[in-house]
């Protein structure tokens, strides 16, 4: 029988801080109490607190900002690890996996969407169209990604949503690579609109076809830019 390993003070502090994040006491965006306040609250030494915070920075839950303090930037180590894996993947691999996720998300959204989901998707498309009209690339990227994540959210499957959100950085980079809002906005037929209609009607087959159409158009533009 193996001996029980002794738990260090740092490990205990890491667990306490992680609990604050996981339990929702420190939601994403929260500024973590100062080192002095943590020392007082936990009754441990300053070096122990400093090392514990550093450990949570390394796993991606916290971020230290020079001159501003430490902030919670994620609440799930698994999601952080998945995000890092997607960010490091080859563009071709990302497109293959995203195609599978987009189709699944569209099908499930058509089956499980609520009126609130449809309203949120419609609002994203309205804002997306306004960004195209204004040639506002930053706003376009924000609302385009919000629409696609919204489709995944409308599927009402937490695991699917977590997987899909891990592609946000690659989606943003892919749009920036095109760097041509006029071409993006001028695609015909506009499969985003078709996708919304299919989801609203509960047409899972039509939603899947529209999701494929969105990615086909996007890949054609990527190929044109790269050639």
TrEMBL record:
GO terms for molecular function: DNA binding; DNA-binding transcription factor activity. It comes from Mycolicibacterium alvei. Keywords: DNA-binding, Transcription, Transcription regulation. Residues 7-75 form the HTH gntR-type domain. Gene3D superfamilies: GntR ligand-binding domain-like, Winged helix-like DNA-binding domain superfamily/Winged helix DNA-binding domain. It comes from the Bacteria. This is GntR family transcriptional regulator. Pfam families: FCD (PF07729), GntR (PF00392).
């Amino acid at each position: 029988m193996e001996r029980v390993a002794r738990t260090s003070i740092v490990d205990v502090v890491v667990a306490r801080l992680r609990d604050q994040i996981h339990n929702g006491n420190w939601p994403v965006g929260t500024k973590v109490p100062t080192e002095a306040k943590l020392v007082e609250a936990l009754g441990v030494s300053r070096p122990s607190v400093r090392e514990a915070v550093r450990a949570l920075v390394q796993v991606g839950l916290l971020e230290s900002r020079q001159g501003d303090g430490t902030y919670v930037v994620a609440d799930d180590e698994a999601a952080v690890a998945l995000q890092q894996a997607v960010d490091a993947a080859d563009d071709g691999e990302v497109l293959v996996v995203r195609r599978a996720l987009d189709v699944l998300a569209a099908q499930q959204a058509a089956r499980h969407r609520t009126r609130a989901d449809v309203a949120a998707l419609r609002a994203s498309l309205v804002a997306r169209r306004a960004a195209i009209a204004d040639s506002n690339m930053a706003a376009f990227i924000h609302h385009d990604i919000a629409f696609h994540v919204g489709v995944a959210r409308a599927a009402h499957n937490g695991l699917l949503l977590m997987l899909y959100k891990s592609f946000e950085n690659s989606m943003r980079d892919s749009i920036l690579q095109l760097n041509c809002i006029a071409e993006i906005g001028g695609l015909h037929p506009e499969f985003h609109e078709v996708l919304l209609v299919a989801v609203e009607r509960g047409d899972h087959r039509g939603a899947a076809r529209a999701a494929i159409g969105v990615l086909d158009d996007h890949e054609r533009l990527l190929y044109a830019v790269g050639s």
